[in-house]
User: Which sequence fits this backbone?
């Protein structure tokens, strides 16, 4: 049997995590990641994200909503980075959260996008992050 | 294949929602996320939007009863609401949200009250139109609702 290129991409599917307390946004961004070939999970809070990481989960891409109710996104980013130094994280914001955007990037976030993201933006990000 | 006016009706209705400015490009993005594994994605998102936002609007309603108005609180609520509107591409509703927030920043009770009424009207109008649209679209079948014809 001839080997095909498909085997290569099947063996290593990208994984993603969406951290967003807003139901609709969480749903949309999860579907968006999946549409771009990423096996995506979603949680509502930074605390829940940390629980996943504490249990050993790792993700190629983490999408974090910057409007927060409990754990500050910059704090989430810092903690994820500690557990996974190579963590690739992008922030999404419904509004001009300048203060939080800066803190997030300083904590290791790659970039911040305005919500909702679209396919083009995600593809660009994936390219820029070598995903 | 027999000619059936229903798909055309659905397509026309869909187009009019864009032409009349009720929906923007984000709605198309949602349609593109719909597929065989997720055949009713758009309708699910819209249903969730109306369910979640009903709660938020009730909070805003209550906050609008107070005198004087707590503009900071109202702005905060409206920011959340605007975010949801952006998610489904609710263009007119979203623009009323923006207007409302400007009145909050200007500290205008009258402006906020007026705009809030406009916003609720647009919100209800869109809800009815979407309900009709989804009902029709379901009759045609999940794969037919997208733009590409």
Assistant:
């Amino acid at each position: 049997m001839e080997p095909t290129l498909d085997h290569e991409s099947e063996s290593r599917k990208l994984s993603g995590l969406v951290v967003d307390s807003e139901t609709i946004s969480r749903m949309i961004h999860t579907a968006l990641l999946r549409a771009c070939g990423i096996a995506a999970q979603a949680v509502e809070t930074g605390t829940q994200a940390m629980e996943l990481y504490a249990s050993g989960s790792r993700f190629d891409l983490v999408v974090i909503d910057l409007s927060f109710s409990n754990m500050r996104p910059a704090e989430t980013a810092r903690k994820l980075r500690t557990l996974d130094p190579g963590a690739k994280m992008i922030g999404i914001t419904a509004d001009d959260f300048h203060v939080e955007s800066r803190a997030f990037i300083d904590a290791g976030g790659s970039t911040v996008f305005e919500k909702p993201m679209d396919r083009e933006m995600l593809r660009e990000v994936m390219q820029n992050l070598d995903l | 294949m027999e000619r059936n006016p229903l798909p055309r009706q659905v397509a026309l209705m869909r187009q009019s929602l864009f032409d009349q400015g009720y929906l923007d490009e984000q709605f198309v993005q949602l349609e593109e996320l719909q597929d065989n594994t997720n055949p009713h994605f758009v309708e699910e998102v819209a249903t969730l939007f109306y369910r979640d936002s009903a709660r938020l609007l009730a909070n805003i309603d209550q906050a609008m009863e107070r005198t004087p108005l707590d503009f900071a609180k109202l702005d905060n609520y409206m920011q959340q609401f605007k975010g949801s509107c952006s998610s489904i591409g609710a263009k007119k509703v979203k623009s009323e949200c923006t207007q409302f927030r400007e009145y909050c920043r200007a500290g205008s009770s009258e402006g906020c009250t007026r705009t809030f009424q406009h916003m609720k009207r647009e919100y209800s109008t869109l809800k009815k139109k979407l309900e009709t649209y989804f009902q029709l679209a379901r009759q045609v079948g999940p794969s037919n609702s997208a733009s590409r014809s």
About this structure: The longest helix of chain B spans residues 109-140. Confidence is low (pLDDT under 50) at residues 144-149 of chain B.
